[in-house]
Amino acid sequence: MSRFQVVSGKGGTGKTTVAAALALALATEGKRTLLVEVEGRQGIAQLFETEALPYEERKIAVASGGGEVYALAIDAERALLDYLQMFYKLGSAGRALKKIGAIDFATTIAPGVRDVLLTGKACEAVRRRDRQGRFTYDYVVMDAPPTGRITRFLNVNDEVAGLAKIGPIHNQAQAVMRVLKSPETAVHLVTLLEEMPVQETADGITELKGAELPVGKVIVNMVRPHLLDEAAVRAAAGDRRKEVAKTLAAAGLSAPTKLVGPLLEQAAEHAQRVELEREQRGVLAKLGLPTYELPLIGEGMDLAGLYRLAAELRSLGKAFS
Amino acid sequence: MTLHPAAAPLAIDPLLDDPATRIIVCCGSGGVGKTTTAAALGVRAAERGRKAVVLTIDPARRLAQSMGIDSLNNTPRQVKGVEGPGELHAMMLDMKRTFDEIVEAHADKDRARAILENPFYQSLSAGFAGTQEYMAMEKLGQLRARDEWDLIIVDTPPSRSALDFLDAPKRLGSFLDGKFIRLLMAPAKMGGRAGMKFLNVGMSMMTGTLGKLLGGQFLRDVQTFVTAMDTMFGGFRTRADATYRLLQAPGTAFLVVAAPERDALREAAYFVERLAAEEMPLAGLVLNRVHGSGAARLSAERARAAAENLEDGRIVDQEAGKAVERGGAAPDGSSPEASGTYEATEAAAAAESPEDHASPDPAAPASNPTFAQASDARSVTTVEQLTAGLLHLHAERMQVLARERRTRDRFTALHPEVAVAEVAALPGDVHDLAGLRAVGDRLADGRATT
Ligand SMILES: Nc1ncnc2c1ncn2[C@@H]1O[C@H](COP(=O)(O)OP(=O)(O)OP(=O)(O)O)[C@@H](O)[C@H]1O
Ligand SMILES: Nc1ncnc2c1ncn2[C@@H]1O[C@H](COP(=O)(O)OP(=O)(O)O)[C@@H](O)[C@H]1O
Ligand SMILES: [Mg+2]
Ligand SMILES: [Mg+2]
């Protein structure tokens, strides 16, 4: 059972949307999930149509059946200040460090420090327990950086190795790695049925596996329905043109002969798209991972669409929990 | 379908043909077709007689292969297969290599090696947000300085915001010039170890704290990095500023690329406003992947109603024994959208028992019936079914069209001064010269009408 679900994928494929839908889907029957974002973009707030999230866990949605979704926008600078506070009781010196730009420096270019802080905070939430010893969150879902950066982002141990061989940051990195490499974690990749995202997915899986990080599922997003197949289009384009025109007329449409050409052209384009998608599905199938599809929300994404995606994912509930 | 009357058409060929046009920058948010547009413009410019170079960033693999630039070697190569009087050269940006080259060019050998090996430099050159944008600008400056091409077309990095291209280099510059780095540098300047003594107490406590937190090596590495980079900081800013000015110069034209979607056009609007504020010359908006229809006079509603008429008759047909041929699709007369992919997804869920995820055998087809069914759209046999399918397809297309038009009109209402060229969505990817020419033709034509 993976309690920590990391959602990556090529830019724009729907990481934020899928992560949010997954957090909603996992929050069934009184379960509580935490949705975290790490890139300081306030993508969650935008999606849920709420004001910007502070660095604080906050309830943002109630799922059907009474589950709750909390959200947190992790901020690396704040996380670093928290650590300094925890280990060194810095008090106001922390603010001074921030003022001279030392915090910015450390979280910006000290290799891996930022990532350790971000993943560290998420892992802390995964492991946190309440007074009765139960997990505070049943699941933690992360809207993670894109495929091109995900392995480096998660492989914090290697990253900080060049920097810190001892000290709290090093220990932190090791603790994070223990969670990330365990079956508690699953890294899912979101893709579209297009060449570039599918290619990136394949490359990403190779990298993740190379770093011994647990790859979860492939989620194909924005899948459009197939209305006609190629055989039908061929038939229509060939000997059945006239028949189609007649049928159009029978259905009550005027000037049917003028419609046939454009309609068939659209059908041919559709068939070509179906064919390309079939190819990409073939590539995905070879990756040997469980693959799930989410429909394109034709009207554009809003809260209703998000809940619809969550319902789709919930029907896959067993596969994800 | 014609353009919204408020939008002036964008004339691409005059722009490409004008010898005064020296740089074209293709900007926009991720995935909208910047790289494709840049490459298509390059091919078209060359085939119309220009000696052009395209600086691509992160092109699709097959596109790069077809242009012969799939290996990163950071210098332009001539593209074979371009016809006509001109020449096309192309390259793919190698961000790290470009950064390393700056270091090598500006520091003596020992110092350069010290920098290249330093973990801070490595993190800066490989991962700092904005390094790619900075290096794209740097490379543009280099290409311009070589003066071998009369037209340079630049693609921009796949960032979420088009504005990153303008902002990131300055962000990197001001980071390198930041307070903390200067504080660290001050003692270093006074001469290594001795200089450390001059660190004021508060400062040393703070860096000490960071040192403790991050490990012992930390301060030493920072110090090496800062000392070694010292001579270069000024250089970075000067160069970034010079390239920035190049972007404002006459002879530079910006093309904002967007898909006819809400987010992409919102980004495009921000970018247009920003260019105006920076006095950077905007040539126009390329609206890419627009859908058209040759049967636009038939509305979605009418098409759907007609299809449903036909489908009512279809049920009879099936009962006459044809349902078997339809390969298991629901013979219940449900609408075509309702069957297919999504049900397959649910079937996938059902097929996976609770224990499955403990020992997944993902390759097993049983856990993944999605493919088998989803790729196998129903084979339609009767002419009524076929025609109904065509009409449903049309209805879907008309809905897409309407949505795209609304989004576009919102943009043109906001920015009627921006010239627009529409490029039709081609049914497949664009991955070879023929595809690039097709995009180029549509760019020049400016209307997405099919
Ligand atoms: N299933 C869907 N149907 C329709 N639209 C969708 C769907 N999934 C995502 N979208 C839309 O696609 C766009 C990109 O989605 P999203 O922001 O989630 O992607 P992302 O991978 O997080 O992007 P980035 O790389 O910029 O973080 C958004 O406008 C979103 O509303
Ligand atoms: N007009 C078009 N019709 C069909 N496919 C297109 C079109 N423009 C771009 N594409 C495809 O879309 C994908 C993304 O395009 P790309 O140019 O790499 O985007 P960007 O550089 O903005 O990230 C590529 O696979 C490309 O082939
Ligand atoms: Mg996102
Ligand atoms: Mg690109």
Tell me what you see in this structure.
The complex is a heterodimer of chains A (321) and B (450). Chain A is an alpha/beta fold and 321 residues long. Chain A has 15 helices and eight strands. Chain A has an eight-stranded mixed β-sheet with strand order 3-4-2-5-1-6-7-8, sandwiched between helices. The longest helix of chain A has 31 residues, at 256-286. Chain A starts with a strand and ends with a helix. With 450 residues, chain B is of the alpha/beta class. Chain B contains 18 helices and eight strands. Chain B has helices spanning 12-17, 34-47, 61-67, 95-106, 109-117, 119-127, 131-146, 164-176, 179-189, 192-196, 201-214, 217-248, 262-278, 300-322, 341-351, 370-374, 383-414, 433-445; strands spanning 23-27, 51-56, 77-78, 87-92, 151-154, 252-258, 282-290, 420-424. Chain B has an eight-stranded mixed β-sheet, sandwiched between helices. Chain B starts with 11 loop residues before the first helix and ends in a 5-residue tail after the last helix. The chains are: A alpha/beta (321), B alpha/beta (450). Chains A and B meet through helix 3, helix 4, helix 5, helix 9 and helix 10 of A and helix 6, helix 9, helix 11, helix 12 and helix 14 of B. Adenosine-5'-diphosphate sits between chains B (28, 30-36, 60, 158, 288-289, 423, 425-426, 429-430, 439) and A (194-196).
Structure keywords:
heterodimer, A: 321 residues, alpha/beta, Rossmann fold, 8-stranded mixed beta sheet, 15 helices, elongated, B: 450 residues, 55% helix, 10% strand, binds adenosine-5'-triphosphate, binds adenosine-5'-diphosphate, binds magnesium ion
Helix content estimate of chain A: 40-55%
Number of helices of chain B: 18
Strand content of chain A: 15-25%
Provide the CATH top-level class of the largest domain in chain A: Alpha Beta
Kindly report the spatial arrangement of strands forming the biggest sheet of chain B.
Answer: 3-4-2-5-1-6-7-8
Q: What is the fourth-level CATH superfamily of the domain at 12-164 and 244-294 and 412-445 in chain B?
A: P-loop containing nucleotide triphosphate hydrolases
Interface with most residues: A-B, 98 and 94 residues
Largest sheet of chain A: 8 strands, mixed
The structural class of chain A is alpha/beta
- The rough form of chain B would be described as elongated
Mean pLDDT of chain B: 78
CATH superfamily of the largest domain in chain A: P-loop containing nucleotide triphosphate hydrolases
Q: What name is given to the CATH topology of the largest domain in chain A?
A: Rossmann fold
Principal-axis shape of chain A equals elongated
Q: Nearest-angstrom radius of gyration of chain B?
A: 28 Å
Quaternary form = heterodimer
List all distinct small molecules, including ions and cofactors, that are bound in this structure: adenosine-5'-triphosphate, adenosine-5'-diphosphate, magnesium ion
CATH architecture classification name of the domain at 12-164 and 244-294 and 412-445 in chain B: 3-Layer(aba) Sandwich
The tally of structural domains of chain A comes to: 2
Predict the CATH topology of the domain at 12-164 and 244-294 and 412-445 in chain B: Rossmann fold
How many strands in all of chain B?
Answer: 8
